[in-house]
Hints:
The protein has 420 residues and is of the alpha+beta class.
Amino acid sequence: MKFVLPRGTRDILPDEVCYWQYVENISMDIFTRYNYREIRTPIFESTDLFNRVIGEQSDIIKKEMYSFQDKGGRDISLRPEGTAPVARAYISNGLNRHSGETKLFYKGPMFRYERPQTGRYRQFHQMGVERINCKHPYSDASVIAMSYHLFSTLGLKNIKILINTVGSETCRPVLEARIKQFLASNLKNLPEHLHEKFEKNPLKILDSKDPSIETYLSGLPDLRDTLSQSSRDHFNLVMEYLDCLNIPFEYSPKIVRGLDYYTETVFEVVSEDLGAQSSICGGGRYNNLIKNIGGKDVPAVGFAFGMERVVMLLQEQGIDIPNRKTHIHIAPLDPLYLLDAAKIAKDLRYAGFSCSIDFEKTDLSYSLKQANKFNASHCIIIGDEEINNKSVTIKNLTTRTQSLIDNNAIIEYLNNETTL
Ligand code: AMP
């Protein structure tokens, strides 16, 4: 019997995992600099939580949730995103007891039953931040600026930050009415699948990927005019802070985000180098979410980025990631020397090197091939002459030169040869 991967999932093999670790380490470093602390929540939660937070009209709730009843008859869903669980955890652990802001970050797998394609999976991974109990526009700008700090530190090129505002909860009906009014005369020409959106969630028509919609949206008036003065002021200040922090961004009225909980500022980070799935990061402000699931009335702002897409972009753009530890391969040329090899390996590992030994085969040309496969910087060769001289031969695999080194001087020699 042959088992295959479930559709929409993938194995992440060691050569790619280095990229994942690079992104995770840099992200954690950057988030910590902005005083965010990690939170880990379960991979599944009650289905009600997501229904409540994400909104009945969103694609996620309508067709993408991995939902099931557990053996106790509870309705459970694999998390499709990270904000709802973090907000739930914020309330259930009483993090809202403390006055002032709570800044959290998370990482882990998310699950959506989507049509798989390059850059779109059914199990994918996000890292994200939530800045809770903050209403000042500086918080929105600072969260956006942090995403820029992160992606530029990773070395990503050709990325764009697109920002928009969807106004407050009270602006929403006015905004929707304006879009409907604008599109009404073209309703019969709109693609069939947008008719339901027109009725129930017209804002979502703006970010439809359907190319035919472009024609019907041209001439759409500036929707910021429909927003309240305080929403407009908020957004203007966000842009002012971003300018002042020197963060490049574009105002993009078509960014509205797929999840219903957003209010005021929304943003996406995109890259044209990614093809159809161009969005690497999305976020915005969600002022009512925590109140709507039983918490205090605390406004918040956050973002999440997709690990798969960031890693794809790093590879696509040929960005070198720092080498892993210097690796040394050891080649004992006789089974009698295996113990000597093991002792040297132990000393090297305690000294901070990564190290491997050929135990199964004592054959120099085989060992040199293994050393190349492991990307070793040096190969330590232990043969008769070396044992007689209480020393080893160390071959530099870049320069192809080799030297006989006394057993007591191996670590000092390798420390000089490599930069640990
Ligand atoms: P969202 O939670 O939909 O706002 O998505 C935030 C980010 O997660 C996106 O910009 C993508 O990088 C990533 N993402 C969302 N859905 C998927 C998916 N099905 N497969 C891979 N990455 C995804």
